[in-house]
Amino acid sequence: MVSACGASVAALVTADNTSHVEGMPEAALKEKTFSASRCNVFLCKGLQFEDNIANVQTLQPGQVVNMRASIPIAHEGPMNVSVVNTKMNMVMGGPLISFVSYADESLPQLPANNTNFNVTIPTRLGNTCSVPGTCVLQWFWFGTKADQTYESCVDIVVPGGPNGTGFLSAYNWVDILSKC
Description:
Layout: H1 2-5, H2 7-15, H3 24-29, E1 57-58, E2 64-68, E3 77-85, E4 90-92, E5 97-102, E6 116-120, E7 135-143, E8 148-157, E9 170-171, H4 173-178
Parallel strand pairs: 1-8
Antiparallel strand pairs: 2-6, 3-4, 3-5, 3-7, 4-9, 7-8
C-alpha cells in the first residue's frame, strides 16, 4: 500500500481500520509517491491486493457467507454489501444486502442485523471473479449526517462453472447509492 498510496495514507488505515475515507485524499496530497491510478482510496480504502494475497477467500456460487461488522461509532445512513470488480471499480449485479437506514445513532441499541448478517454469493458471475485480485466482497456504509464513508473489503475468488456461466451486469457505485 505504501508504494501506491504513500506512507500517510497507509498510516491512516493502520492506525484505525474502522476509520472513514474522507481524510485520505488530503493525506495523499502530501505524498510524492501517491498514484491515483494505483491507489483509489474510495475502493477498499486504497488497500492493495499485493498486500493481502495470503488472505484471499475462495467462495462458491450460491454460498451463504456470514459477515460481522464492527461499528464503534454509529452514523445513520445507507449500507450495502456487494461483489466489486476491482479492475473496473464496478458492482457486479447489485447489492447482496442493503439497508436504507443503517447504524442509526438515535437508537438505544443497534439492531443485531447491523453487525451480524448473511449474504449469498451470486451464481451468475461467470469467470469474472475466478482470478485472484479481480474481485472483493465489499461492505460499504455512508453516514449521512457525518458525511463519512466507511468500507471494508475481502479479496475473493469465485470459480466459474455450470452455475456460473451467465454474467451479471455491472453497476457503477453512483447508480447503487442513488437507490439507497
